[in-house]
Specification:
Order of helices and strands of chain A: HEEEHEEEEHEHEEEHHHHHEHEH
Shape of chain A: globular
CATH topology of the largest domain in chain A: Nucleotidyltransferase, domain 5
CATH architecture of the largest domain in chain A: 2-Layer Sandwich
CATH class of the largest domain in chain A: Alpha Beta
Number of strands of chain A: 13
Oligomer: homodimer
Radius of gyration of chain A: 20 Å
Strand order of the largest sheet of chain A: 3-2-1-4-8
């Protein structure tokens, strides 16, 4: 009973490319962790099996086992119903266009209770409670990665709207603008999402333009342009990478400033794969790109890089199990 | 003491072109009203004098006098401090670039307490408590007139942020787009504000294009393109008016959809001079223009025309005095 009475909890960040699992103690210190690739084939059952293995590994490294945890939280993409633990339409996960009772399946296999939350929202809550958002009562989290996700804390509480709030990536920053991966036009994500930027780079290469991006990708044995590859290309002054990232920063500035004009929140926290990898200098550039669009430009919100880095998603998921 | 014990209150909507004053009873039924033009010259003292006359007239028509009112609320443009009753930087009012203790000055002259709120926010609260927003707990009010203002009710309470929330008119709908009257580029208001549309129409006429807008203005003895003039020009199929209003509807659709994607609110209420004048058919067109940009397009928010019409601002101001 020792481990249980510790109040140790598990947290899993279920991403499109990797699964990050943690075990934390009652004050959210990390006791153990594990990481696995997200399956690229199969379906929800295969993803669930990987989640079980990841949290079991994290438990091993913490010297405990899943059934002894106070609970496990999962931050998931797609449409999450926190009451039922059912996850639907997780487009970035294999064969997950329908609905799957993820909480129930994991609870059966782990022998402890399982709580599911929206991946971006739990990462925002982690930053609010444990990271860069601690000094504030109202915070917008912007997760700049494959897509651009958003999470809101208003007066100290998560704002979910009718369960679908936070889609800052689909702010229209240019009417009749670029086609977004969501199918719509002119969304912030169409300019700033890593997925959309890669598509654009591929199209430009197909037209005969030059870039080192795909050479770097092959050298690293990757099939996609990761945040590390973008960072490397920028360091080497690749002109296409510079141009696409400049456009992304401009779009982020406009989209985030629009949200600030509407909500007048105290702080913006930039996380996600690109946000965390690029860090402080790019967060400063985003703040600068917001400035010309801010209505109350004499008192811009504070803009911070995510304090928990890559671990925010899993830490936020573990917070779900503290309730 | 009879009128006082009734709980009668006054409400004044201080607009850029007109001052609307009301006296209401304890259940917000209108007992009397008066309307005056907003001074176009002078300064805050002159505006305050007109406010005193307007509410005194409204009292006369209600068979009472200002000193017998439970209180008077004022919905004001500019930066409003509700605690001190000081109004600053009201750009649409004459000589009001600095600060003026409006509540104090009015209270001295009226002999009753005076409360000041932001004009757009009090109109949103009026719609929430008494108008089209009654069925909902989270509402975005969009006031489409000379500018485009916004007000938010979240979980039944006004959301003010750091006192400056609701600037949906300065959502960036087109990066590097049209110049806004605020000096920035690509704001929703640069496409949809009556002020910006008039400027654009004047520029196009100066270049030799044709429109009946300014002929209608002269016939009616006006110096600005009022909502009635725009409505008349549309009825007569004036091609420049149709084109500019189409552009405004498109921009409103994009900007409001972006707010809905971020907040996932239950309902949007369209008010303001143009919103009320154009009414249901145009509100339906705005809802249609939002649809392609909505992330959760299977369940759009309800979109309504303001239920209180032109009186929302003054009724909302009167609500301030019920506290």
């Amino acid at each position: 009973m020792a481990a249980t009475s510790d109040g140790a909890r598990g947290g899993i960040d279920l991403g499109g490319t990797k699964i990050e699992a943690l075990v934390v103690d009652a004050v959210n210190q990390v006791l153990g962790s594990a990481r696995r690739p997200t399956p690229v084939e199969g379906g929800p059952e295969d993803v669930a099996a990987q989640l079980v293995e990841a949290i079991t590994d994290a438990c091993s490294s913490a010297g405990t086992e899943p059934a002894k945890l106070r609970g496990v939280g999962v931050g998931s993409p797609g449409a999450v119903n926190p009451e039922t633990g059912i996850v639907s339409r997780a487009g970035n996960l294999p064969g997950w266009s329908g609905s799957f009772p993820l909480a129930e399946r994991l609870a059966d296999q782990l022998g402890t209770r399982v709580l599911i939350g929206n991946d971006v929202q739990v990462a925002t809550e982690a930053e609010f409670h444990l990271g860069a958002g601690r000094p504030y009562q109202s915070v917008l989290g912007v997760f700049w990665g494959t897509g651009v996700g958003g999470g809101l804390i208003l007066e100290g509480r998560p704002w979910l709207g009718r369960a679908g709030a936070g889609e800052i990536g689909h702010t229209v920053v240019k009417i009749n603008g670029a086609r977004c991966t969501c199918g719509r036009r002119g969304c912030l994500e169409a300019y700033a999402g890593r997925g959309a930027m890669e598509l654009r780079a591929r199209r430009r290469v197909a037209k005969g333009e030059h870039t080192s991006l795909f050479k770097l990708m092959e050298e690293r044995g990757r099939s996609r342009l990761t945040s590390a590859i973008w960072a490397h290309a920028l360091e080497h002054r690749d002109s296409m990478a510079i141009e696409l990232i400049d456009r992304a920063v401009e779009a982020l500035g406009a989209g985030i400033a629009s949200a600030v004009n509407l909500l007048d929140i105290e702080a913006v926290i930039i996380g996600g794969g690109l946000g965390v990898r690029f860090g402080e200098p790019y967060v400063a550039r985003i703040a600068e790109a917001m400035q010309p669009h801010l209505f109350h430009d004499e008192r811009p919100p504070n803009v911070h890089v995510a304090g928990l880095g890559d671990l925010g998603g899993a830490l936020g998921a573990a917070l779900l199990a503290s309730r």
